[in-house]
Design goal:
The protein has 135 residues and is α/β, with parallel strands linked by helices. It has helices at residues 12-20, 23-34, 41-53, 57-70, 78-91, 100-112, and strands at 8-10, 37-40, 72-74, 115-118, 129-131.
Length: 135
Amino acid sequence: MNSENIEYLLDTYAWIEYFLGSKEGEKVKNLIKHQIIHTSIISIAELSDKYHRENLIDEWRDRYRFIMSKSSILPCSIKIAKNSGFRKLELRKKNKSIGLADAIIVETAFQHGLMIVTGDLHFETMENVFFLKDK
């Protein structure tokens, strides 16, 4: 894939780091500024859960609006849902603790030809990942 044609799928981890303003978040900020960015609907659900659990509802409203303005939201299509069980089974060969939400995000990236942006250790050894943590 030609590097100028790469589009990115920011996972939940990437958005959290961006909003924290961390070193990893600076890398995400640069991608948001210069690249085509997408977000899985699953990450929206995970972020909503996080902000509501932490009673940061007003902050969530602002961050949700920001995410919507800077990325396209990709739904969980029937094809993604159908393939996610197999994707999880395959991912678990390398990481026994990977969950269904991660498998759906990976399948979403695969179906759309996107590079996943994350620092989540579940994704560290995968291909087609822009890994935020320094190795």
